[in-house]
Here is the input.
Amino acid sequence: MSSPRAATATTPETATLANPRRALATVIAVVFIDLLGFGIIIPILPFYVRSFGVSDVYIGLLAASYSLMQFLFAPYLGALSDRRGRRPVILISVAGSVVAWTVFGLAGSVAVLFVSRMLAGAMGGNLAAAQAYVSDITPPERRASAFGLVGASFGLGFIFGPALGGFFASAPVVATASSTLPAAIPTTQFSLPSFAAAGLSLLNLLFAAAFLEESGAQSASARRQSWIGTFRSAVADANLRGLVVAFFLLSVAFSGVQVMFIPFAADYYGYDASQTAVLLTYVGALGVVFQGALVGRLSRRYADSLLAVAGALLLTFALAALPFTPELGRALVPKTAAFAFLTRESVALLLVLPGLSLGNALLSVSLTTLVSKVAGADVQGSAFGVTQGAGSLGRTVGPPIMAALYVLRFWSPFVVGGLLMVGVFGVLVRRSGVVGGPARAD
Here is the structure.
């Protein structure tokens, strides 16, 4: 990996595009459509697995298989984008998603579901190329805002994607499709959302092929390394090593929320599927606001390293407080704050969730920005591939661990997540003088 000094210099890629703002908008749109297709599958996945009469264990294994393939392929695709350019890697990955979601809808067995999800996970490694693209076309001082917009596109994808998935899985839509589409096309509550995701991916492929310019980042000097060699280089780089560890720990910690939050809301608040969907929409909307607007403004006033430390600290307390919101609500929220449809316990939950969302926004965006600044211009893809791979590894090992902890003690996955965030906080404080430091040098 290159030195931080090489990364902070003005890169030639920024000057090669006639309209960098349009290029940024285009790549953000590509990421949004990609996540929209991914989000469509979320509400049907558990029921699709159960339709084959297998244990719910397969739901977790299916999720882990996706993240495992991301872990294996993100470093490779990121490094490939350094050598061949960002555009072809993004196009190939989106094309692979078309195939993956089509196979998902046609699956006749759990084994085929695994094949589809593994292919989708491998193609999901294109995020590293997209992040490197953003870094190529954005000056260092504006990268936090740009990465915040990418994060906001994630939030929008997870807001509208599940809603579309529920729409295509609804009985009236399935009945209409069954009566209008050829008999050769399966029309079930599982196939239609899958085909919708494939159709969005195809639309995304056509859009990217037509409008996504090459950033000009391919470099003959970028070394071709093996998967292990790419990770070894990142871990050997003192500037990048702490960020790789932070991405891994953050992903393991946050997997407790991602996997066990809905069971927690159902078990301890009595929320049904529609109520939890509203709650997830609320969290997604907070993420869009925080990542799309607030983080960029804060980054213009404070060092990225300082924002990352603040995000880790806030996330630590929010995770630890989350399972105890019923008690906190009864103890701290005045009775006058409750309504007929909103208890004091629910008020406390709604007050903790913004802290969780803001902490995640500050930490995720700042970590991504720091990666772009410590990696040289010729290895941006490799750096993002490694850090995304570390995050995917965390999302592979985290869910089964957090699910087992929840069975033992309902509060334990969230509290353990908070303890892991203490580790992230320590890593960032220790390395805060490497990039940025107290006097905003990053």
Q: What stands out?
A: Residues 144 and 299 are 6 Å apart (CA to CA). Residues 15-211 form a domain with the Growth Hormone; Chain: A; fold (CATH 1.20.1250.20). The chain has a mean pLDDT of 82.
